[in-house]
Amino acid sequence: MSTLAPAHTGWRRHLRGARPAVTDGEMAVFIVCVLVTTIGLAGDIARHLEHPESLENDFLSGWHLVLYGGVASVGAFIGVGAIRRGPAYLASVATGVIGFALLSFGGAFDAVWHEVFGTEALVEALVSPPHLVVFAGLAFLLTSPIVVLWGRPATRLGLVGSVAVLVSIVSTVLVTSLFTGFLSPLSGGLSLQVGYVEPLVGESVQEYDTVRGLGIAIWTSALLAAAFTVVLVRFRLLPGAVLVGFLLLGIPPLVVSEPESIYPLTLGFAAAGVVIEVCVLLLGRPTLGRVAASVTGAAAGAALWAATFAGLAADDRLAWTEALWAGTITLSALVGAAVAGLVALPVPTGAAVVDSVPGPHPA
After folding, report:
1. What digits encode the pLDDT tens for the residues 127-170?
2. Is residue 6 helix, strand or coil?
3. 351 burial level (CB within 10 Å; 0-12, 13-18, 19+)
4. Pseudo-torsion of CA 261, 254, 296, 164, nearest 10°?
């Protein structure tokens, strides 16, 4: 017995076949362009948080030039690709095109906003509408390499693919953490309120710090579980790539804060990376299934905060009671397991992305 594929399936295959494939070399150039944009945005947000007094009348100076220079390079990359490979190339990098459009609009929106309402400072900079539009555009840009690789049939990635995914996911997590600085552990040691330095999670028993610390632990565990599960249920990266990614996540706190005070958090990121590497090695077939993803999400969340609290305790800086720190580790494991399990719901992967009929796929 034979079945006929729906008509829309044929059209989708035709359109997909008409798109020029993005080469590894093009992807490498695109990643460089996006990294310049990311660095410019990170520097600009950090300036808003740390030096609000330097923000007047500088829209076309400092980190803004780096940011919009990066945006211009992305636009040039897309434009040159369309000229060389034809207009269909825009569909091949559609996520990047959407990101470029949002970034361009966000930049213009930001200029108008500054003119009408003035320049944002401290937490205002994180929730400013034009900055959030820029954040959305950057999120589209940063995830473009993963979207491109997702359309390929390969599951095991080589060096270029692993680096592309690593840069994409780490940059996305860092930018997301930057824009959610009010619930990010990366804000430890910074001053989000005038005259008050944010402590690390577990370092203070003041009610505000305790409640905020619990929120940080939950949000961070959920963010990391979601970001890395998306990748690990679809791809098998080169050994050590995930650990490198978590080490890169632990570097910014050392740069923006005092290393001797923030190092327990970096230790926590490293521990989470090691745990995920072990889980992938033991449970990957070659990628993670739903149960394996939940186990990995739970183990990573628990390891992150267990190692962080251990580092604080070693310096005699852990102020939380056993109920608080043990409960935080447990809660992080539960959140990591739940989020990873939801993200790992059965989806078309590998050859199914290319050949299967679109629609729900049973577990």
Report:
1. 889 989 988 998 998 899 899 999 888 899 998 889 889 988 98
2. coil
3. exposed
4. 180
